[in-house]
């Protein structure tokens, strides 16, 4: 995340929220340092644990459903 991105978030009246999605071999903790920067700028951060990370039976469709559910929440 660049300084200009952080400034942009801070300058907005309502920074909103950010969804951080980990890669296939990652986990939500991979985003911890990025999430802290975004939260410090005033936005809410959500980093869901994808179903495919929790269960070998889950796949891309379940992951996409999870991300959509987080965005809609």
From TrEMBL:
Pfam families: Abhydrolase_6 (PF12697). GO terms for molecular function: catalytic activity. Residues 18-71 form the AB hydrolase-1 domain. This is AB hydrolase-1 domain-containing protein.
């Amino acid at each position: 995340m660049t300084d200009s991105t952080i400034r942009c978030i801070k300058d907005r009246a309502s920074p909103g929220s950010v969804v951080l999605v980990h890669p296939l071999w990652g986990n939500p903790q991979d985003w911890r340092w990025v999430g802290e920067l975004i939260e410090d700028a005033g936005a809410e951060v959500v980093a869901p644990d994808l179903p495919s990370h929790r269960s070998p039976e889950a796949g891309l469709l379940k992951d996409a459903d999870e991300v959509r559910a987080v965005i809609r929440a």
